[in-house]
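Suppose you are handed only these lines of text.
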Amino acid sequence: METFHGIPVSPGVAFGKVLVLHSEDFFAVSKIEISIENVPKEIIRFEEALTKTRSELFGIRKKIAQDLGYEQSDIFSAHLLILEDRTLIEDVFSKIKEEHVTAEYAFSLVIQRYFQAFAQINDEYLKERVADIKDVGRRILQNLRGEKKDSLVRLKENVIVIAHDLSPSETAMMDRQHVIAFATDIGGPTSHTAIMARSMEIPAVVGLDRISREVSNGEMIVIDGNRGLVIVSPDPLTIDRYGKEEKRFDELVTELDKLKSLVAETLDGHRLMLTANIEFPDEIPSVIAHGAEGIGLYRTEYFYMNRTDLPSEEEQFQAYRNVAERLAPKAVVVRTLDLGGDKFLSSLEVPREMNPFMGWRAIRFCLTRTDVFKTQLRAILKASHYGNLKLMYPMVSNIIELKQANQILEDVKSELRSEKVPFDEKIEVGAMIEIPSAALTSDILAREADFFSIGTNDLIQYSLAVDRVNEKIAYLYEPTHPAILKLIHHTIDNAKKAKIWTSVCGEMAGDPAMALLLLGLGIDQLSMSSFALPKIKKAIRSVTLKQAQEIAARAMEFHTGDEIKRFCELKLKAILPELYEG
Ligand code: PEP
Ligand code: MG
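From them, the structure of the protein bound to phosphoenolpyruvate can be written out as follows.
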């Protein structure tokens, strides 16, 4: 039995079989020389591996097209093209013939040369292609080795996925029925991969450093998403302990789900809106099942991922209309395209940047690529006729950007009016507050916005200069840093003066101790992964507004993030011991 420590990013406990998706050294193959007579045999083996990979990819493409739609399956057309690359194939043949080595070794050398060549190209689109080549290369190598392969898209049994890293798009493709947990070497608590795990409601641990090299397929492990532990080959006592914990966790979830139809109201009658964050429309049943009062953040960029073209206006309109209709009369806040940071789109040619989180992204990108922006705004406005939609812009850093975005929105509205296309004339438009400059000038921004949505995930990263996906500095990523509380407080105060409402839609909103603090700071709405809604509701329903205000006031007096965190957790523990233990 061996225990590894990482960062807990999605709660719960899972015990099961490992599926190593890819370790860092997957393509490192030992050199094995062969006799000259065996050269034709190796060439045939390589050809057979290519044929097998091709038929697998055709199968997956078909399955994805059936399950998720044609657009989602398009990524595999790109994969199939790689298999047709004559230069790559000929290079492998010559290596086998000239150096008398196995097909595995020859292929690993050639493919690694491709990776290196691509890594040096200064083009984000081509950089994305490396991921495709890696994916295809992995399949070919697995077929050569005769390894049993389990694609994450179609699994036969429950597995715990272990990988060096998982991209948000890979996570999006996972077979949600059979992936019961995952753990990765790298990543931070608010990386989008972690956020996806929470939306899938499976335990996950990231930042484990070397886990992908330490475990092998089929090994039994425990993932403790509450404490950030991975236990390899657990002894019977540990399995028993975790079995009980899993049961307790499930009981608590069932207990909390009973609050579903109740409102989030403090003991002295103060109402708060509790809404859900979604990445995909297929999360809507879970949103409804957990009793959300609407969707406070619909991250539309996932719609643009895993595909080689851009979604058309009609396609987006149908998708947003569908979400609007399913939630109506409840509100859905659609966030306009927020690409960049750790989310890249294969369909858009965005140059590689030194600091992608601080680069040409989100609203900055949309204000330049107005063609892409207008298409999305038209689709959102058209869909607003069929439900209760609001829209908001990500990464606003100053009033000029907000005014420009609003001007483009007005232009799009005029277009629709002249085309006699109906839309909600009173649609509310919000600004995300996720850059310190936006929080500090929220009095100015409030003049151009109907509401604010504080994106604490980014606000923390930019205020504290801590990359949200870097596990090495994750200890500095403190939602309770006094600077963060001051920025949130300032934003809420300015919003109240301007008589507009404020939401927090970052991951901080889904932590019960933080929810009490935010309630005390005067927040109007909290939006989170839907699984977190019941426990947040329970916390809100267990205090008075006055109590929460006292917690917030005391918290603001401390000097360090750690003191504030411990203080808020102690308060929650005193108010709600059972929730805390769960
Ligand atoms: C945030 O930054 O807090 C946020 C909600 O947006 P995202 O996590 O998608 O960057
Ligand atoms: Mg953000």
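What can we learn from it? The two ends are 25 Å apart (CA to CA). The chain has a mean pLDDT of 89.
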